[in-house]
Amino acid sequence: MTPLDEEQVYPALQDPEAKWYVIHTYSGYENRVKTNLESRIESMDARDKIFRVEVPTEEQVEMHRGQRRQVQRKVFPGYVLVQMKLDPSSEYVVRNTPGVTDFVGTGDLPTPLEEGEVRQILRQAEQPQQRVKITFQKGQRVKVIDGPFTDFIGVVDEINTEKNKVTVLISMFGRDTPVDLDLLQVERL
User: Fold this and answer.
1) Summary mean pLDDT of the chain
2) Is this model's pTM higher than 0.70 or not?
3) All domains of the chain, ordered by start, with CATH?
4) How far apart are CA 71 and CA 56, in angstroms?
5) Taking Cα atoms as reference points, which of 86, 78, 75 lies closest to residue 21?
6) Biggest CA-to-CA distance, the chain
């Protein structure tokens, strides 16, 4: 059971009939479905109809017991992208793969994704950007867990996800003082 090589996959991508489809899977089984589907493509000789199987992921940074750690998170949990020429035989290979519940579409017909959507999803997966998992929102009380304000309690005033920063209003000297912190320096109470 070997996954498809790049040489086997990319030459076939020039086919104008090849479209991207989304298949629904059991939650948490996305990688297993990808492996199973790639094996079925090999064993059922469907390389000329099913070209690429992707589980888009992104890197997130989260705090765990005071330590920063990078975690791979699925962008679309419970879904897998498949590039294929849709016909009864290729549809059969995909639908009968263990872990696949169905294609995403209207009625019994799978609906292809728009090319722009696919490009954006794949670009995001190929050029990962570290994202910080935000567990709080504006107006919520938080505790500072790192830096010179450790153990101070404050209220979230502003969240800047692009810069991974948060402004927290901390009560000092009898008044609220805005303090800019890294998203990983605070945790929800």
Assistant:
1) 83
2) no
3) 6-131 (3.30.70.940), 141-188 (2.30.30.30)
4) 14
5) 86
6) 73
